[in-house]
Amino acid sequence: MSDALSVQEGQPTARRPKRWHILVFLLPAFLVYSAVMILPLIETLRLSLFNTVDGQSTFVGLANFQTLFGEERWAHDFWNALKNNVIFFIIHMCVQNPIGVALAAMLSIPKLRFVTFYRTAIFLPTLLSFVIVGFIWKLILSPIWGVAPGMLDLVGLKSLFAPWLGKPGSALITVSLISVWQYVGIPMMLIYAALLNIPDEVIEAAECDGVTGWSQFWKIKLPLILPAIGIISILTFVGNFNAFDLVYTVQGALAGPDGSTDILGTLLYRTFFGFQLQLGDRSMGATIATVMFLIILAGVSLYLFVIQRRMRRYQF
Amino acid sequence: MSKARDSFLRTGFVHAALIAYTLVSLFPVFLTIINSFKDRNAIFRAPLTIPTPQTFSLIGYETVLGQGDFATYFQNSFIVTIVSIALVLLFGAMAAFALSEYRFRGNTVMGLYLAIGIMIPIRLGTVAILQGMVAANLVNTLTALILVYTAQGLPLAIFILSEFMRTVSDDLKNAGRIDGLSEYSIFFRLVLPLVRPAMATVAVFTMIPIWNDLWFPLILAPAEATKTVTLGSQIFIGQFVTNWNAVLAALSLAILPVLVLYVIFSRQLIRGITAGAVK
């Protein structure tokens, strides 16, 4: 590396002393980042191709993946977790982002008062840890405490209450909505920023042409904030497909009831680390981590090479 | 005339919607904090009222401070968070300076290499990270957490800081060079003070995920002596699940530092998000 650093493009080496300071500036970050992030990632990908045979680590090719996708016990858990993860993501996209856009659109109305207060308050849950958020909602939704049924009673809807977190049919949706509650601040902020960046001339020109109100939002503003919505979508995708903490806090490592809230993160934790009677399995853990890596990589590549390229960017 | 009333109605509607959502986001936090100061009966009988002199009780806090080792947990979290932020800022700024200031072969490749971590979560390498920490004898030490969080924070820090360092004037740096400053003094004495606002933004961005992380403390440092607040309250609450006073008090204690920091830094944080992130 020092060799590469010492030569400046288009200049003969002899005239230039070795620029050691570049190396000194880059080295600490490079070393920590490579040693703790990149190498373990590569090593994990490599481990997914190995398994313990007769007490020895042996190269097994894609056999681990065959087990994961094909063998009944593994396949059931894996496809269940993947399916739940996809639902988890879809709920985020369909609830979190529209609410975020709506809040941002309201906040960006010119001369609206108390904007700073609303912004600060709505962003607060995003900063809380999953542990806090998970337990607070667990308490609120708990039939023992009775806050949720009590509040539904105020609006005459008490009959709608059910222990949502405890029912296989509604647990995943409930957990997803808790996560949406926590994270709605991020799309709100990013879209708010994008809306503020739209120049006044564009809006004035629209008003001169008689485009106002709703149609102004749909026809003028929305196309202009599409890049921000793209960024939010990919952030949500990456975040959702390696989520773990909230489900672990609310439903435990088994992601109950009956695995109905199991997502890839909790499956990875149980597989790799073991839980109760199940022993930790390093190779299968690495295999699941590799699958997660490939899913995230596919999403990010799709965004970078297809969606972002197609999206029209407007220069002001 | 009717137009003015229309816009008045519309503003009213917007405020109503925003207040409604603000209540939705603040209510759970508010509910937890007010109930942590009540006795057990009042928590169940009237969860929605604020504590009165009759129902006021600190029994939950007494349990938490007596049983859980929260002082240690807080200390661990502070050490891990502060050291990691310091390392991320120092190493990140140095690398960002090298990438933005000098032209050398491999500059672009190095920039891309360091940017991988923005999108690919470090969590996916956990299997090998644990293996490496076991080999290096670092399991159940705060050092392990600090290393992981430093690596996790660097990519975004380098990305944001190098954007900002490109805006520092070349004339200033060249003037420094003519005056005989070394490249190191140019970095530490000229450039660093100028990018201080960006450093603050990066510090806040780096801090939140570190303080709130549950995954790595759970896997790398679950021992009693190295638990962070997040893991500590997770386990404490798990054990005291039927002692509602203690659970609510533990939750309030865990919210407190975040709330205080947010009140201090919210302006910085929000400005950082709205200015830098969408570019």
Automatic annotation (TrEMBL), chain A:
Gene Ontology, cellular component aspect: plasma membrane
CDD domains registered for this protein in UniProt: TM_PBP2
Main localization category: membrane
UniProt membrane topology term: Multi-pass membrane protein
PROSITE patterns: ABC_TM1
Record has Transmembrane as a keyword: yes
InterPro entries from the UniProt entry: ABC_transporter_permease (IPR051393), MetI-like (IPR000515), MetI-like_sf (IPR035906)
BP term (GO), one: transmembrane transport
All copies of domain ABC transmembrane type-1, residue ranges: 82-305
Family (UniProt): Belongs to the binding-protein-dependent transport system permease family.
Name this protein carries in UniProt: Sugar ABC transporter permease
Organism: Ensifer adhaerens (Sinorhizobium morelense)
